[in-house]
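Input record (one chain):
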Amino acid sequence: MDLFLDYTDKQIINTTIKISGSKSESNRLLILQQFYTNLNLENVSDSDDSVHLIHALKSDKKIVDIGHAGTAMRFLTAYFAVKEGRETILTGSERMQNRPIKILVDALRMLGAEIEYIDKEGYPPLRIKGKKITKNKVSIKGNVSSQYISALVLIATNSENGLEIELLEEITSRPYLEMTLDLLHQIGISTSWRENTIFTSPQSSIASKTITVESDWSSASYFYSLIALSQVGKTITLSSYHKKSLQGDSCLAEIYQNFGVETKFNTNAITLTKTDKKPKLETLNLINAPDIAQTIVVTCFGLGIACDLTGLHTLKIKETDRLVALQNELQKFGAQIDITDKSLHLKPSSILHKNCIIKTYNDHRMAMAFAPLALKTPFTIENADVVTKSYVNFWKDLDQCFSIL
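The corresponding structure, as predicted from the sequence alone:
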């Protein structure tokens, strides 16, 4: 589905948007729920990634296809490796079959897991023979994807001897690891993280527990961008959010102050307001929150200001190479943008071309990050329904923010 967007003749109205639960929190808790059936979950994400994960966990089929769901691929690789007596072929979309999984597979094999590559070495699809794992020490690179490490932590909870994970090199997306550990603490499982070592204690059962998943901060980023590009005084309220969040992307509240967006924390909600503060050049290291990079870059371009973003090396192995994709599509509007393998540099610009056709590269965040730019210029987004990967009602919620002049 291609979608033409033009909000240049519309005004933002004061409205409240209910955003689905965090995909990151939901997917971790869904794995834990397999080990602890008395763990009850509310406000679970309705994203494609979480839906694929739920279907995979319920499936008794030998072949499990998780489509584009990267988190599901990583978590399920570990989960099926300890699912005793079950053989599973874990596969996904063409893009997924070109996203590396070797670092996680190597770590699982180090623990005794039986995993084979069906096609290309280091990439899905995988043949996994589930077995009991008793080894309790492993080392893994910390600078590629925190999801590899979280996958190991999650299965360690139900292991016989727990697990000690040595993290090698710089740690990427540290808040996501802290999220995983915090969720374990919430259900009563003991962990520790000292310097470069994480230890997870084994626990065969927990007390009954209900967890309500906080709404997704990555999804909130697009409304931050919308307010940043709107007129002074415009507001939007988003629920359900907390000031003390487990999600690394909650740094949005601080970052977007520099773009003139004030965040007011209410009870289980936030209200975003555009102030008269002049936007300024943004230099950020997003190693702990790479998923909001696309939103920030488009915001800066729409405001006509420069930005320099570093810590972006993981963007090259997402649904697409997000650095190249951003460069390609922003240049269509007239942006001057340079990239390296781990950084992006946008120059200030007053040029803003109309009626561009934006490719999404099967990446949900490309579609949603560009959408607020329609306040400034009309354009078309190809394959706009790709947003369902993380935010099923995005286009409906976006329209709810506007009234016709």
